[in-house]
Amino acid sequence: MDTTHRIRAHFADSAELKLAAVDVMAPLIARAAGLMTDCLLADGKILACGNGGSASDAQHFAAEMVGRFERERPELPALSLATDTSILTAVANDYDFSQIFAKQVRALGRSGDVLLALSTSGNSANVALAIDAAHEREMRIVALTGKGGGRIGELLTGVDVHLCVPHSVTARIQEVHLLTIHCLCDAIDTNLLGEES
Fold first, then answer.
1. In 52-132, where do the E strands start and end?
2. How deeply is 190 buried, as exposed, middle or buried, from its count of CB atoms within 10 A (0-12, 13-18, 19+)?
3. What pTM was estimated for this model as a whole?
4. What percent of the chain has pLDDT over 70?
5. Are 94 and 27 in contact (CB under 8 A)?
6. Which residues, listed in sequence order, are joined to residue 143 by a DSSP beta bridge?
7. b/e for 39-54, b at 16 or more Cβ within 10 A?
8. How far apart are CA 133 and CA 11, in angstroms?
9. Are the C-beta atoms of residues 111 and 137 closer than 8 Å to each other?
10. CA–CA separation, 184 vs 178, rounded Å?
11. If you ran DSSP here, which 8-state letter would residue 20 be given?
12. Residue 1 has what pLDDT?
């Protein structure tokens, strides 16, 4: 198989998964966007966390909220917990790597806030502990996972929203996570600002 053929296969696989997942995920994404909008309207904030590519997605989401997505609007309070190297390395060194997000959630999270928890496997220990900490703070969770949801899927309650990509390949899950983040940003903007004219 030549390189061009492999690239075409990646495009096709990604497109097929997105179309196959839309019926299951669209209502849940809308519910998650509603939960986030309600949080923001109540003067709450959204904390986001994940590892590796999911850390980048957490940063991406926070940047779209604080800056803008596609429309001009006031800044929205969102923060990636994966960006402060001093906190991350201090907590990992002094306690344990599994605590890097949970300690930040306990420090910054308040009742009514939302935790956006990203883990392609659903089994990231530090994300799972962040969910536990968020529940302690009476926060709600929007979890983006794949591969059946793993441990994270088991931690969620009825007031949380689980956006589980129905696939087992990490790259495909991450591609749907990025699309989901864009859908969340667009839906939040529409909820706050109305439809574009």
1. 78-80, 114-118
2. middle
3. 0.97
4. 99
5. no
6. 117, 162
7. bbeeebbbbbbbbebb
8. 38
9. yes
10. 10
11. H
12. 65
Closest CA to 191 of 77, 110, 109, 73: 73
105-145, pLDDT tens digit by residue? Answer: 999 999 999 999 999 999 999 999 999 999 999 999 999 99
Full set of structural domains in the chain with CATH: 3-193 (3.40.50.10490)
Closest CA to 150 of 175, 177, 114, 117: 117
Structure token digits, residue 152: 């994270």
Return the residue matching tokens 């909820």.
Answer: 191
From residue 130, give the alpha-carbon distance in Å to each of 16, 140, 146, 182.
Answer: 32, 11, 18, 23
Bridge-based pairing state of the strands 161-165 and 46-49? unpaired
